[in-house]
Write a structure and sequence with these properties.
Layout lengths: L1 H25 L3 H9 L9 H13 L4 H14 L4 H13 L3 H14 L4 H10 L3 H22 L3 H14 L5 H12 L4 H14 L4 H12 L2
Helix pairs in contact: 1-2, 1-3, 2-3, 3-4, 4-5, 5-6, 6-7, 8-9, 9-10, 10-11, 11-12
Organism: Halanaerobium saccharolyticum
Protein name: Tetratricopeptide repeat protein
InterPro entries: TPR-like_helical_dom_sf, TPR_rpt
Amino acid sequence: MLNKIKNFFKKFKDKKLFNQGIKKLDDGYYQEAAEILFQIEDSQQVDREMLFFNLAGALIGQDKLDEGEEYLNKAIEIEAEHDFLWATLAEVNILQKKWEAAKKAINKALELEPGKEIYERKKEVICGSEELKENYLKYFKLLKESVEEQKKENWQQSVELLRDAVDYYDQTGYVYNQIGAIYNNNLGNKELAAQFFKKAIEKEPDNEVFIRNLKQVLKNS
């Protein structure tokens, strides 16, 4: 009975730490996220695949790419049939300029999820020209700088960095959606928010998040 009680509290504590780590990661506080998640690295009370996946994200966010790759591979050892793990590994390999490894990983993601457009676009980068590859790396660097400005609530500077980012790579709607969200939530300009949500939808017409964001801003205009 005593062991059951101890296990209950252990499970509760570890899940709480897991959720705290995810929240920090979602907010862009990568070091804090890693510090929290490392506390439960050996826990059997949480989903270990997702623990390693999110630890990888926290490390990658700190430019600890080799360590991030290691934890992604740990997640893949647990569940090799999840396409998002392979797609994330491909992204890390791109940042490491390991182009052959990136190609192998994105092909595996596409094998598991054939025709997925975001993966096809990633493969275009991996198999593309040197100019395209370098532009994508510049795009990614600007995204990270934008996140840092958001953490300091420098919203206009963040928007400017995001606008610069799409000059280098504009094949997804992600950045346009981010700009729209900042205009809507932080800069109080719903007209511009709607314009950027529409641009995001032009890039990804079936993205439910982008569509919902546009509907919401038009409803409240």
